[in-house]
Amino acid sequence: LSPTRASSATWASCWPDSPPGRGSLSRMVVAIDGPAGAGKSTVARALARALGFIYLDSGAMYRAVGLMTLRQGGAASERAEELELQIGERVLANGEDVTEAIRAPDVSEAASKVATNPGVRAALVKKQRELLSDGDWVVEGRDIGTVVAPEAAVKVFLTASPEERARRRADELGTDVDTVLRDQALRDAQDTAREHSPLAVAPGAVELDTDGLTVEQVVERIARLVEASR
Ligand code: CDP
Question: Is 113 in the pocket of ligand 1 (CB under 6 A)?
């Protein structure tokens, strides 16, 4: 071993026994990306609880910007920049509890629309990176493994067939599957085709098809990946 190290070496790489894939010694990020209805929220929340990590739903941030833009109009990027968010069990946007309001179908569509705006993305990615700079996190979204935290120790891309995803979402919302399937196809197309940070499998991500798997089975598989990366 050479006693001198390249000046660009990070702290993590200076310690011979530091686990690979960790961005720093003090934090660990598990990134879970995938399309609507793939089970990200349920799985990410359960995984965070099992690991004792903090859970972040980045989609709630885009939804909050979508809601504020629907209500107030104007530039979505301005709505994003001025947004004061508190995300925990409840989602507070500018002091107002919007936990239920952001789940409405018109807000899903508005979120997907504002998410195509590079100014909105820059503002929210900045907030997300600030949060993730400390602590252990399970983060779900569309661009966590590709853009927000490409150094994440574990990256997972959750999928399921469109029919299965629509069935799950229809159960959640109490609406009919055909309507959900139509809205979902539109949002999938928008999220995948957009120019900025489209939904894509990150390099190094493990693709997990959740069709026919229970939540527990999916959580267990990801927990094993986390164990292996420590
Ligand atoms: O829960 P669901 O998968 O239906 O959507 P979500 O995660 O709440 O995200 C709502 C919308 O925000 C998505 O359709 C994306 O357009 C956008 N989004 C994004 O662009 N990047 C993220 N990291 C998270 C969400």
Answer: no
**Least-confidence region, from 5-19, 28-42, 155-169:** 5-19
pTM of the model: 0.87
pLDDT of 166 above 70:
yes
For ligand 1, whether the C-beta of 155 sits within 6 Å is no
Q: Where are the beta strands (DSSP E) in the chain?
A: 27-33, 54-57, 85-87, 91-93, 96-97, 135-141, 154-159, 206-209
Backbone φ, ψ for residue 86 (5° rounding): -125, 120
**Ligand 1 centroid to residue 191 C-alpha, Å:** 8
Give the span between the Cα atoms of 162 and 146, in whole angstroms: 23
Tell me which of 112, 175, 195 to substitute to probe ligand 1's pocket, judged by most ligand atoms within 8 Å of the beta carbon: 112
For residues 80-98, give the mean pLDDT: 95
5 Cα to the center of ligand 1, angstroms = 41
| Tokens, residue 63 | 């939804």
Using the atom order of ligand 1, give the atom closest to the CA of residue 191.
16
Instruction: Report CA 185 to chain centroid distance, whole Å.
Output: 19
**CA 98 to chain centroid:** 19
